[in-house]
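Hi support team,

I've been running sequence recovery on a batch of backbones for a student project. Most finish fine, but this one hangs at about 90% for roughly twenty minutes before it completes. I'm not sure whether the input is malformed or the queue is just slow. I've pasted the structure tokens below so you can try to reproduce it. Let me know if you need the job ID as well.

Thanks,
M.K.
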């Protein structure tokens, strides 16, 4: 079966990705930040520690996986949403968002790109947000979150170009407004299971023509 590596499986969208791929009998490397949040034992599932801000965690996971081929990486770990307004911005939190939402995914790809190259499917999916779209920003605010996701989108676009010769398809996915802690409201429009099933569907039909694009969870292309 194919192998997927997923970040941010402690809760929410990442956890749901892991559970759905396990149900479909994939080999799943589900990474957690807090050991208390490891997924229950299941066939094909490996729980591994990875805080995307800690270089040592990357080194240890790489040493553990060695040259094992990966078919798909789902870069999902992220934090948001900052509510800081001009005049009362929390720059420490802005910096934290960059560390987790922007730099972490880049380090993830740099660490495991050879594993992905030796996989069969060779797909990289990043969970972004339409809040990172400059063209769709009509309401302002959320400086740190928007900038961290816009930076993430820029990085994924460059990776799509740089990794094209290796046959790796890169896509950024907006999950919709999802009923997770990250969604920030129990009134969020989309149940997490539905969002993840839809994103998995987009990942499934991805071809090299789609590399470097941003899509909503339902496959609708989004503007930068
Ligand atoms: N829900 C939405 O409506 C929505 C909309 C647009 C985009 N997104 C994006 O979707 C992704 C998942 O968010 P979610 O909605 O599922 O919210 P969530 O439940 O808060 O999940 C975020 C996950 O990221 C993990 N994480 C945080 N910092 C980390 C770190 N340094 N290293 C590794 N993992 C870390 C969290 O672990 P801990 O619990 O241990 O902190 C948690 O498992 C994020 O990238 C978010 O920006 C969500």
């Amino acid at each position: 079966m194919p192998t997927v590596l997923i970040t941010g499986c402690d809760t929410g969208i990442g956890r749901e990705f892991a559970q759905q791929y396990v149900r479909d009998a994939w080999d799943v490397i589900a990474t957690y930040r807090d050991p208390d949040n490891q997924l229950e034992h299941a066939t094909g599932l490996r729980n591994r520690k990875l805080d995307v801000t800690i270089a040592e965690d990357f080194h240890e996971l790489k040493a553990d996986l060695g040259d094992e081929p990966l078919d798909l990486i789902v870069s999902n770990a992220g934090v948001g949403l900052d509510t800081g307004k001009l005049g009362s911005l929390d720059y420490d939190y802005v910096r934290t968002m960059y560390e987790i939402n922007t730099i972490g995914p880049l380090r993830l790809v740099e660490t495991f790109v050879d594993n992905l190259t030796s996989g069969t499917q060779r797909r990289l999916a990043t969970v972004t947000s339409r809040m990172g779209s400059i063209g769709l920003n009509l309401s302002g605010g959320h400086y740190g979150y928007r900038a961290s996701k816009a930076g993430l989108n820029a990085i994924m676009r460059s990776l799509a170009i740089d990794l094209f010769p290796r046959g790796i398809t890169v896509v950024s996915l907006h999950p919709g407004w999802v009923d997770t802690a990250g969604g920030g409201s129990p009134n969020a429009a989309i149940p997490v299971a539905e969002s993840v099933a839809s994103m998995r569907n987009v990942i499934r039909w991805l071809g090299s023509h789609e590399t470097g694009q941003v899509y909503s969870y339902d496959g609708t292309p989004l503007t930068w």
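--
Follow-up from support: It reproduced on our side and the slowdown came from queue contention, not your input. Residues 7-8, 10-14, 33-34, 37, 51-53, 76-80, 100, 127, 129, 174-175, 177-178, 180-183, 188 surround NAP (CB under 6 Å). No action needed from you.
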